Amino acid sequence: MGDSLRRAEVVAPYSPLTPSRTTLGDHCIKEPKMKMTFRWFGEQSDTVTLSQIKQIPGMSGLMGFLDYKAAGAVWEKDEIAAYIGPVHAAGLECEVIESVNVHEDIKMGIGRRDEYIENYKTTIRHLADAGVKVIVYNFMPVLDWLRTDLSRPIPEDGSESLYYDEAELKGLSPLELVRRTAADAKGFSLPGWEPERLSELEFTLKNYEGMTADKLRDNYRYFLDAIIPVCDECDVTMACHPDDPAWPIFGLPRIAGNMADLGKIIALNDSPRHALCLCSGSLGSNPENDIPAIIRRFGSMGRIACLHIRNVKHLGYRVFRESSHLSTDGDLDMYAIVKAMYDTCPNAYIRPDHGRMIWGEQARPGYGLYDRALGAAYLNGLWEAICKTP
Fold it and tell me: Fewer Cβ close by (within 10 Å): the C or N end of the chain?
């Protein structure tokens, strides 16, 4: 590897990017380029089509997802090709794959964890062969992202959004919550809520009894020590998604909810292939988190591979809804967030995260077309303004 490439990796070890349609203005041509992407669940699982995504201004590609793959299973080459082939045919890239789920045995350090780690390593190699550069995952025990309502009306404009109120969890068992979430999902699968992943929920929760944050981090280190050499071999970066919401749920330990937590995670392995997927909405669920400061800290270290950017509106203690991306519709400063990215990790992949249901759209909760397309346009506008500011 030449010295010039090594120097580039200090800034962006996950993707030495070339100019794309996101190149904006003479000033930006001289700067590293972010890549605007969109989450897509596949031809059989998504109401949004590739042709629609292609028509969103500034869209370079996807953050892909195979929603039918169980945690611990190998993503086979033909399955990956069946997803990525149409993406490339539509003129889009697929350099980021999301939700290669980590099996609970790995998180708990029990049972078949070494077998599941070997499967994970095989999946990394298969995805690398298909041109994938970043894999997004999380280390949240049992329950992935959590909301208490998937379609709460917003009184101010009549749209519907994902909503969380901790008080609504009182009296609910985890199993009851899973059943209610599935019933509210409009027949769609939800990332992190796959039925096979939750089919043995009560048994899994029992096994987590006595699990501490330190023990969970030890198991995380074991996982990283096993897979990062494969990432180095394949030129793939692992990007850990933070907890959502950013606090413990049902007594389960969570270890990725604030700057200190993320610092401990980064300290688990020194390789630049061990990085973060910085989600502003997940971390922003806790109003005490300074999202731009978090981006600046880990972006300056070269440890942010991609970002999910969205806004949230705080309505009380541990009560929030997901708003439009516009700063004034929520409580996060989207300009400051994008500026922090531009200053410290400008080569990162980015996507607008969850959107509201607007204009009568019926789609997977959080993943319709219209509001996420508006979010992409807004984020691109912020990026262009920052690029052109002397």
Answer: C
